[in-house]
Design a protein that fits this description.
alpha+beta, 171 residues, Alpha-D-Glucose-1,6-Bisphosphate, Chain A, domain 4
């Protein structure tokens, strides 16, 4: 009986710890790419180009991608549906030529959630500093996932891979 009480106590402490985690998240990675902001902008502003560099499409090339009538600039839309990557959609909310692209992400599977993915492009001489930022809110399940698996490490690794692939395309 004592062992069961201790286990319940430890479980309650763990759940309190999970609930105490931040309500919001923000992950950011950046890379200096030896190309003009215009060339980088072309890659992130056109959803069909994401097939060439997205780390998640690379992870699951058989995922079904469905594009909206518009695939570039504000209002552009695409959906994905895969076994590994789950399902969801992306919509470009803001497209500032050679400066920024802001994207709304809606995840449906494996877990419903929303997030933002923003790309910021800053010229540095003949190169461009590209920052990929993901932000959103953590519900309890997302907090739990973040404690059990290091979400920031996983996302950062994917962002680094995507930025590397963009660099390979435009340099």
């Amino acid at each position: 009986m004592l062992i069961l009480q201790v286990l319940v106590f430890v479980l309650v402490l763990f759940l309190i710890y999970v609930q105490s985690r931040p309500n919001d998240f923000r992950y950011e990675r950046s890379r200096l790419i030896n190309a003009s902001p215009e060339k980088v902008f072309e890659q992130v502003n056109e959803f069909r180009n994401w097939e060439k560099w997205s780390p998640w499409i690379e992870m699951e090339p058989t995922a079904v991608l469905t594009y909206g009538d518009k695939t570039e600039g504000e209002g552009a839309f695409y959906r994905w549906d895969g076994k590994k990557t789950g399902s969801g959609s992306c919509t470009i909310l803001r497209s500032a030529p050679s400066l920024a692209v802001d994207v709304a992400l809606e995840f449906e599977k494996p877990m419903k959630s929303s997030a933002r993915a923003d790309f910021k492009l800053v010229p540095e001489g003949a190169a461009t500093r590209v920052s990929w930022i993901m932000s959103g809110s953590n519900n309890f399940i997302a907090k739990f996932f973040g404690v059990v698996f290091n979400s920031e490490k996983m996302i950062s690794k994917s962002f680094d891979r995507g930025l590397e692939r963009i660099a390979q395309l435009v340099e």
